[in-house]
Amino acid sequence: MLKKRYALVSSIILFFISSESFSFMSGVKTELDGGQELEIINGVIHQGPPNSSVNVGYGTFRNNTSKDITLTVFRSPVFDDLQMHTMEHSDNGTAKMIHLKTISVPAKSDLSLKPGGHHLMLINKRRDLALGENIMVVTIAEDTVRYMLNFKVIDPRLENDSKQNHDDHMTY
Known about the structure:
Number of helices: 3
Mean pLDDT: 82
Largest sheet: 10 strands, mixed
Number of strands: 10
Low-confidence stretches: 8-26, 161-172
CATH class of the largest domain: Mainly Beta
Number of domains: 2
């Protein structure tokens, strides 16, 4: 009797640790994982004031495939909402932030997220962010392929490159 229970428990354990069942249990289908087809290079989230409800993400999307990747959804367990935005500049020198429903990263190319251009708005953080912490962002393409991207939390005032790129948001 004990041997039969052991065999049954062993079978159940083997079933649950197989890759297909693990994928099912975790809610991630392996065939929808884009892996390194899309990467974020130097992905950073600027740590804002403690009472700020919005943070911003910058970096460079790198498309390692021979087809365009159009991203439609951004999510993170740390924020209530993530939105892709760009800045629209008028002839009279004013700028307006535009919410983008989709963003396309051309085949075998990069797309920069930077101040004054495309950027990721991270809205309503659910907890405090620690400097140096990596924040997972999941993005879903229009073909339902998912990409997991890591952004590092930085203080832009302490990062030379980020400070230089951040100066165009300052009012003098």
